[in-house]
Each structure stands twice: as C-alpha cells, then as structure tokens.
Amino acid sequence: MTDTSTTSRNASTEVAKNDTGAPGSTTIAEVVVQKIAGLATREIPGVHDLGGGAARAFGALRERIPGATASAGQGVSVEVGEKQAAVDLQIVVDYGAAIADVARSIRRTVITAVERMTGLEVVEVNISVSDLHLPDSDDAPAETDRVE
User: Fold this and answer.
1) CA–CA separation, 142 and 134 (whole Å)
2) Which residue of 44, 71, 100, 109 has the fewest C-beta atoms within 10 A of its own C-beta?
3) Quick one: pLDDT band at residue 31, thresholds 50, 70, 90?
4) What average pLDDT does range 22-46 have in this prediction?
5) Shortest CA distance to 71 belongs to which of 61, 82, 81?
6) pLDDT for residue 62 is more than 60
7) Residue 52 pLDDT
8) Nearest Cα to Cα of residue 125 among 43, 37, 1
9) CB of 91 within 8 A of CB of 130?
C-alpha cells in the first residue's frame, strides 16, 4: 500500500511559485509568441510581408477562401522555454527601405512586444530577408491583358 500523505505533500511542494509568490504556473504556447512577433513585425514601415515564396502563395490562396483569414504567424518561427524565447523571422522588404534600419526596428519592436505581453526574455531575433517587393509588381498587367 502506498502512503498517500507523502505523495500529496511532495506534489504540493513541487508547485512553482509565480511572480506574486502564490502557488501556480503560467505556460505560454509557442503559437502565442509567434502571433505577437508576427503582428509586431507587420507594424514596421518597410516590411511588405512575412514568409518565403511558398508561404506567401499559400496565404494568398487562403485569403481567397470566404471566411478564411491570413495567418498572423506566417513567416515566424519561435522557440519558447520556461523563461526565454527566440524568434526567427522571414520577411519581404519594400524596395527603397533601408534594410538595416528595418531590421533594427523589427528587433526593437518584437522584443518589446513579446517581453511586455508574456514576461519572457527574448534572447534573439533572427531576421532573414527573403525578397524585395518592387512598387509596380502588384500593378503589372497580366500577359493576356497587354494590347499590341
């Protein structure tokens, strides 16, 4: 027969103390940090979109489906530990934007947003510029629209 009083006592002493000193713990899912980082990145002037070519193509298809919404975490991957988080971003920059300045702004904004909202320490924000958006690329006529 097992001594249940020892078991329950050990379980209660293993409960972590939170910031207020009360027993309990808070777990933050990676998808939460991913969305925070993605939304914060999209706020930065000079960021046209997030994700590589395949992710953006899939996002464009998803937007055509009635009722579907764009993924806030597209182009963002994160690793979340108990007290720290690391963020990797894949972005498309608008032509003419100073990429180094855009990257600095992204890092500052993402770190502030994630740390403020989650309490996690952001140890790194890695940024990969996968493409450059040209101003007329959205307005270019299709091959069949040309008049000769």
Assistant:
1) 16
2) 100
3) very high
4) 93
5) 61
6) no
7) 73
8) 37
9) yes
| Whole-angstrom distance, CA of residue 60 vs CA of residue 139 | 16
Q: Retrieve residue 86's tokens.
A: 């690391």
Q: Which amino acid type is present at position 120?
A: L
Query: 119 with 109: CB under 8 angstroms?
Result: no
Compute the distance between CA of residue 76 and CA of residue 55 in angstroms, rounded to an integer: 11
Strands 84-94 and 121-133: parallel
Which residue has 């909202």 as its token pair?
Answer: 117
- Say if residue 129's pLDDT is above 90: yes
**Which tokens is 68 given?**
């579907």
Query: Residue 76, Cβ neighbours under 10 Å: how many?
Result: 27
pLDDT value for 120: 97
Average pLDDT of the chain?
Answer: 78
Tell me the one-letter amino acid at 40: A
Residues 18 and 33: their CA atoms lie apart, in Å, by 20
Angle at 29 between CA 107 and CA 40, to 5 degrees: 25
